Amino acid sequence: MSKIKENKEQFWLEKFNCFSITGKDSKRFLNGITTGNIIDLNNKVLKSCWLSPNGILKSLLEINCLENKLEVIILVGNTSEIRKYFNDIIFPSDNVFLSDTFSINRIQKVDDMNSWRITQPIFFKNEDKKYDFYNNNPNSLNTNDLKLWKINQAIPSLDSEINGKNNPLELGLTDLIDFNKGCYLGQETMSKIRNVSSLKQEIRVWTAKDKDLNLESENKSIYNNENKEKSVGYITSIYKLDSRIIKGLAMIKRRYLDKENSFFTDNFGQILINKSVGSTFL
């Protein structure tokens, strides 16, 4: 398994769905839907979340603020669901227009030591000369290395960590929420959780310690000991390498994270639990 080498510049290159929002009310409109402060965004890229009314993470977004439009890049999420919701809440009096969905290439520098969120990405289309340069660049992460890097960064996946249950605070995305801006979808729940410190679970990276793996079991539960006395969390993502399952993401109950517990699963026996590079749980 390869790792990103120190002092070697490497890149995350991936194609994402995107659509544009134009009109004089576009910033106000998007500010009321997403967790970031769009109003003060000028010619920058902002990472943000789209939540359900009760604060559950539905999508991870990037907002690229250009001179005359906002580009909404869907890093993780259901593009059709997002566009339908956005269209449905546009009032006749709103000066807001959504474009059709198109694809956009996204590139950013990466390493193993820092969060993916500290580096500003660059966007370009297939016809841009930069696309050929980066697409054929040996320093762009291959598919397997990118999957592993995303696991270590705790970047959530649709239907895995974004599963209709987890909120962005549990997923270590607290810094993508502006608690000082005006109302937005899911704000009441986010403020309540933050003010009373009521997180019940946190995302973690797990690694299989045992060599003998039981791949037949479908039980994703994580237990506090080998006797499986208490379920302390569950596996959300699994990383495979050469038919070996070695690493993934899991949601672990907070009250068990500070204790000297050995964690066990049916599939992988004893596992090690570590904090991620990319979440706020560092």
Describe this structure in words.
The chain has helices at 26-31, 79-88, 129-135, 143-153, 187-196, and strands spanning 10-22, 45-51, 57-65, 70-76, 97-98, 102-110, 122-124, 201-208, 221-223, 231-241, 244-253, 263-265, 269-274. The protein is α+β, with helices and mostly antiparallel strands. Strands 1, 2, 3, 4, 5, 6 and 7 form a seven-stranded antiparallel β-sheet that branches. The chain has a six-stranded antiparallel β-sheet with strand order 9-10-11-8-13-12. A hairpin with a 7-residue loop joins strand 9 (221-223) and strand 10. The radius of gyration is 20 Å and the shape is globular.
Key words describing this protein structure:
2 domains; Gyrase A, domain 2; alpha+beta; six-stranded antiparallel beta sheet; 282 residues; Elongation Factor Tu (Ef-tu), domain 3; seven-stranded antiparallel beta sheet; 13 strands
User: How many β-strand stretches?
Assistant: 13
- How would a textbook summarize the main sheet? 7 strands, antiparallel
Strand content: 25-35%
Shape: globular
Specify the structural class: alpha+beta
The name CATH uses for the topology of the largest domain is Gyrase A, domain 2
Q: What is Rg?
A: 20 Å
* CATH C-level of the largest domain: Alpha Beta
What is the CATH H-level superfamily of the largest domain? Probable tRNA modification gtpase trme, domain 1
So, CATH architecture of the largest domain? 2-Layer Sandwich
Uncertain residue ranges: none
